[in-house]
Amino acid sequence: MSSWRTLLLRIGNKCPEYGGSADVKEHIETCYGVVRRELEHSAGDISNFLIECAEGLPHKIPLLGTVIGLLNLENEDFVKGIVETTQTRFQEALDSGNCDRIRVLMRFLTALMCSKVLQPASLAVVFETLLSSAATTVDEEKGNPSWQARGDFFVTCILSCLPWGGSELAEQVPEEMERVMVGVEAYLSIRSHNADTGLSFFEEDDDLSAGEKDFLEDLWDRIKFLSSNGWKADSVPRPHLAFEAQLVGGKAHEFGPINAPEQPEPLSQLSGVTYGREKHNAELRYPQRIRRLNIFPTGKNEDMQPVDRFIVEEYLLDVLLFLNGWFVKIL
């Protein structure tokens, strides 16, 4: 395996975020230097490999995004190609309903925005496009609420990006960010609450067991708390800040338009049996996260911000995705 591939795969492995003591800035600079020297000979391979690493090692997305931001200072056309390829892969994921890829690529886009590679307004447009689709889906007159699972998934993906990039969006495009937050609030007001009987390996919190909040409602509360706290999430690494003075000189690229999946057949045209079948099919394609995982002892929660627990769950999903075979593609 070439040295630049090895460096990208191992980026951050020995840094404090992963239990080591290496300096993360130095590690990023080393990767950037090696990759930059190889661009003349292997630009296509490097571009594809960076995106594959983001998809297969999503817990390293902030580090990879910073490397791409530094490359953008040297070769705008190369990085523009990464953005365009990501747009194509993201649209394909939307069309095919590839939930893992949608979730991960949205975080990747957020990291690119933080590293001044992607225009903040472009990311906001992605969010608003998916929000509009979700709201139409659960509208009883215009949509088909039996497909709420898809709407919930899109909104969950949007909210899950905000610990990684909410601060930058709120600072750089405050009006667009406000529209996104208002749109989420509006969606939650018209969707149906997800009731669940619970399973033994999920935490039986009093509020959840009483049916007061499902996963999305609970996540929204955590994101609102994060917003009120200045978008400070200690559990999210932000390596781009160490290079902020350099990255600000790069050209932020536009993200091409995306099309949300076509709306399902309107509810008024479905019988009761068909509605149930549609709901089942939607939940198979867009699996629902109903409750928080019971992954911490009770006392541990006192030391965590409300959003930190969700971030840890996201990292667990990242690890499961990696173990489920993504690493075969990139090793």
From TrEMBL:
Segments traversing the membrane: none
Domain of life, per lineage: Eukaryota
Molecular-function annotations in GO: mRNA binding; RNA cap binding
Cellular component terms per the entry's GO annotation: nuclear cap binding complex; nucleus
SMART domains (alphabetical): MIF4G
MIF4G domain: residues covered: 5-227
GO terms classed as biological process: mRNA export from nucleus; nuclear-transcribed mRNA catabolic process, nonsense-mediated decay
Protein's name according to its UniProt entry: MIF4G domain-containing protein
Species, as recorded: Linum tenue
